[in-house]
Specification:
Order of helices and strands of chain A: HHEEEHEHEEHHHHE
Helix content of chain A: 40-55%
Distance between the termini of chain B: 60 Å
Strand order of the largest sheet of chain B: 4-3-5-2-6-7-8-10-9
Oligomer: heterodimer
Largest sheet of chain B: 9 strands, mixed
Helix content of chain B: 10-25%
Strand content of chain A: 15-25%
Distance between the termini of chain A: 25 Å
Number of strands of chain A: 7
Strand content of chain B: 15-25%
Radius of gyration of chain A: 22 Å
Radius of gyration of chain B: 19 Å
Largest interface: A-B, 52 and 58 residues
Structural class of chain B: alpha/beta
Mean pLDDT of chain B: 85
Strand order of the largest sheet of chain A: 3-2-1-6-5-4
Order of helices and strands of chain B: EHEEEHEHEHEEEEEEHH
Largest sheet of chain A: 6 strands, antiparallel
Low-confidence stretches of chain A: 214-227, 261-273
Structural class of chain A: alpha+beta
Number of helices of chain B: 6
Low-confidence stretches of chain B: 11-18, 282-289
């Protein structure tokens, strides 16, 4: 069957769909498990009162706060800011991380903030969620618990968390796109090949749905061929954990460490057992 | 589970993506033999206050009446984007965030005689898009400013060539670009280009302590941790590379005022030759010897 295009297509569909299913699992049920894990870990490790992530919503043209950690941080969820507005908007627009201490500005600004979020920070740290393809949001951390201003170490730590959030978000978005792309590619191949492959629209549907039927089982098996999926799985497993549970952090760090070790090359499984 | 090591995938090209902050023991790695020997700061930029120079601040705007600006803001413009068209229009001397005022205030503190020009590229209308950024640089070069402070950068690979061409255009037009390094991994333009002076932060609270890094892309470290700065409507304390860059921009302005006609690479060489030794630890130790 090695020359059978249908079998090859099925294998390809299966490989892509497994990833798509993992991605979907990470998105569900809340759709924000990854982000919540990142802000939880950031708040714990930076020892901050609160942390939150705002993502740019292209439809609204605004940055919308999606998740938050810390009892003081919750009021921010759902709020939106203009991309050029305030420190978070600045960090999104400029791509430059920064930390800011107590500001002697017009008290009205502070009152506005308090009315909107229920919490006015003494200090704030914000880093962009950015990669080569652009900036997709901002990780914001509020008030170190010891009262000290944020330092460069905090900034660098936040940048690591922001990087992980970006990678994870890109992965889930990309995987969903990839599944769609593969379906399109199969359709094009079938069309170009005419009667040769015998791949009709119905066949493609059958291939995709046949692969889908196996997905949930397959995606629950460990398939750590790429480090990010180990990270993703660690985050997914930790989803049900209490927000500030240290186990969550150690899971993430363990996955990060393994990812760092495997970065230049790749490990692959040689057998099922 | 059986795992075997397989041949590594080809390594991605070495991207000089970001730089560590110039803190603590990391400074010990900056040691090198100085090709210029001991260059005296007095000879490099003593006795001048930046008079005759113009520094452009491409940022969120500058508050014209802020006391930290000392009435040196001589012009404010902003970039307006209409589709792919960018226009430069007069602005009203306000700052939508506070960041540009902070940068301008730092430059003014070091080079109080220099004129300041604000080019606003951030704000609700254009979100700091790379295109606006390019238009701002283009305008600043045409205006013939001496130094441009860029506390922002683009990560858009699509604009790599455009930014590269613009950085070279500035270099050959004798306009010095001073850019904050981006400490988020990944490419960042134009701060990684050789024609630009790129700056990261150190934590010694002295505006006249800076370090030269012989292993670029980030060539200089300047004061950028818990800096007391001018801000929209007042003052605040900030940390970030974008507050380190204006310190170097200020000193570069003094160097260029002291040596009229000096080129960007000569300015950069003097900045390197007058940098502090890496073992400087005492705040207030402005001398480099």
């Amino acid at each position: 069957m090695s020359g059978d295009p249908a079998a090859a297509a099925l294998a390809a569909v299966r490989a892509v769909a497994i990833r798509a299913a993992v991605a979907e699992r990470l998105e569900s049920p809340s759709g924000e498990a990854i982000l919540r894990s990142v802000v939880d870990a950031a708040a714990v490790l930076i020892r901050a009162e609160a942390a939150s992530i705002a993502l740019f919503d292209p439809q609204a043209g605004k940055l919308v706060f999606r998740v938050a950690a810390g009892e003081h941080g919750q009021g921010v969820i759902g709020l939106s800011v203009e991309p050029g507005e305030g420190v978070v908007g600045y960090v999104y627009s400029s791509g430059q991380p920064l930390a800011i201490g107590e500001t002697t500005v017009d008290p009205r600004f502070r009152r506005d903030a308090a009315e909107r979020t229920g919490y006015v920070p003494r200090s704030l740290l914000a880093v962009p969620l950015a990669d080569e393809a652009g900036t997709i949001g901002v990780l914001e951390v509020l008030d170190r618990r010891d009262g000290a201003p944020f330092d460069l170490g905090d900034l660098e730590a936040a940048a690591v968390f922001a990087r992980q959030a970006t990678v994870a978000l890109r992965a889930t978005r990309l995987e969903r796109d990839t599944a769609g792309l593969l379906r399109s590619a199969l359709t094009i191949v079938a069309g170009a090949d005419g009667a040769g492959s015998g791949l009709t629209d119905d066949d493609i549907d059958t291939l995709v749905s046949a692969a889908s039927a196996e997905l949930h089982d397959a995606s629950h098996e460990a398939s750590p061929d790429v480090g990010i999926w180990m990270l993703a799985d660690a985050i997914a497993r930790a989803r049900a954990a209490a927000p500030e549970q240290l186990g969550l952090v150690s899971d993430i760090l363990e996955a990060l460490a393994r990812r760092a070790e495997t970065r230049p090359g790749r490990y692959r499984r040689t057998g099922r057992q | 589970m059986n795992v075997e090591r397989v041949e590594p995938a080809p390594a991605p090209p070495m991207l000089p993506a970001w730089s560590d902050a110039f803190t603590g023991d990391r400074r010990g790695r900056l040691n090198r033999v100085r090709p210029f020997g001991h260059l005296d700061r007095g000879a490099a930029f003593g006795g001048v206050d930046g008079s005759g120079m113009t520094v452009a601040v491409i940022d969120s705007g500058v508050e014209r009446d802020h006391p930290a600006i000392g009435r040196r803001l001589v012009r404010s413009v902003r970039v307006e984007l209409t589709g792919e068209e960018a226009d430069i229009v007069e602005d009203d001397g306000t700052d939508v965030v506070g960041h540009g005022t902070a940068a301008a205030g730092i430059v003014h503190g070091i080079a109080p005689g220099a004129d300041l020009v604000s080019i606003r590229v951030l704000g609700p209308d254009n979100r700091g898009k790379g295109l606006a950024f390019l238009a701002a640089l283009d305008w600043a070069i045409d205006e013939g400013v001496s130094v441009v402070n860029l506390s922002l950068s683009s990560k858009s690979e699509a604009l790599f060539a455009d930014f590269h061409a613009m950085a070279d255009r500035a270099y050959f037009a004798n306009v010095l670009l001073v850019s904050a390094a981006n400490n988020v991994p990944g490419p960042s333009y134009p701060s990684l280009f050789a024609a630009v002076v790129s700056v990261a932060a150190h934590d010694i609270s002295d505006p006249l302590v800076w370090f030269y890094n012989p292993a670029p892309p980030v060539e200089f470290g300047a004061y950028g941790v818990n800096v007391d700065v001018a801000w929209r409507g007042g003052r605040t304390t900030v940390t970030g590379n974008s507050f380190a860059a204006p310190h170097i921009a200020g000193v570069a302005t003094l160097i260029r005022a002291r040596h009229p006609g000096i080129s960007p690479f000569e300015t950069k060489a003097i900045l390197a030759a007058t940098a502090n030794e890496s073992d400087v630890a005492q705040p207030g130790n402005a001398g480099n010897r």
